[in-house]
Amino acid sequence: MSTCLWPGSKQLMQTYHDKEWCVPSYDDQYIFEMLTLEGAQSGLSWSIVLRKRDSYQEAFRNFDIKYCSQLNDKDLTAIKEQFNVIKHLAKLQSVRANALAILDIQKEFGSFSNFLWEYINFEPIVNNWEKEESIPSHTDLSTRISKDLKKRNFKFVGPVTIYSFMQAIGMVNDHITTCRYR
């Protein structure tokens, strides 16, 4: 068996593909990390974001939701200047906004994971794509989740970002049918 082609020959991308991509996660902190990184990726390549992942983890204390919810504009500007993160201030401000929104969801649903996984009855969607070109950039479901998140004050959560996010946390398994990690 082979693997998906999109990771290419870069070890960091291959490791992400092999060990994380499309693997179901129910951990709010990891889910928040993936939401943050997918939002940071908007308009950029995933490999750029993965190379900066360690810096993001350091800057946001391993994506501690409560900590991130308490960051002020001065803190976020300092993160922008002192860490090797994407220097887009609105993307950095989205970390705080999304952490605050997650705290609200946790109060209402018990966890961010419960809120998200309920959309698919807690069962991953396993697609049967034969070619990577068949994988959509977004779906009706990612559009619906995007709209719902925006209503709850989330930022950088468009339908394409949310579809990538769904893959990142394993809500969707889009490994091609010949991939050994399927």
Q: What string gives the helices and strands in order? A: HHHHHHHEHHE
Report, as a whole number of angstroms, the end-to-end distance: 10 Å
Find the structural class using helix and strand composition. mainly alpha
Tally of helical segments: 9
What is the helix fraction of residues, given as a range?
55-70%
Q: Quote the CATH topology.
A: Endonuclease III, domain 1
User: What CATH architecture would you give?
Assistant: Orthogonal Bundle
Radius of gyration: 16 Å
Instruction: Report the biggest beta sheet as strand number plus sense, adding barrel if it closes.
Output: 2 strands, parallel
Tally of distinct domains: 1
Got a strand count?
A: 2
Shape: globular
Which regions have little confidence, pLDDT < 50, spanning 5+ residues?
none
Strand order of the largest sheet: 1-2
Strand content: under 5%
Q: State the name of the first-level CATH class.
A: Mainly Alpha
User: What integer is the average pLDDT?
Assistant: 97
CATH homologous superfamily classification: Hypothetical protein, domain 2
Protein name: DNA-3-methyladenine glycosylase I
Organism: Gracilibacillus caseinilyticus
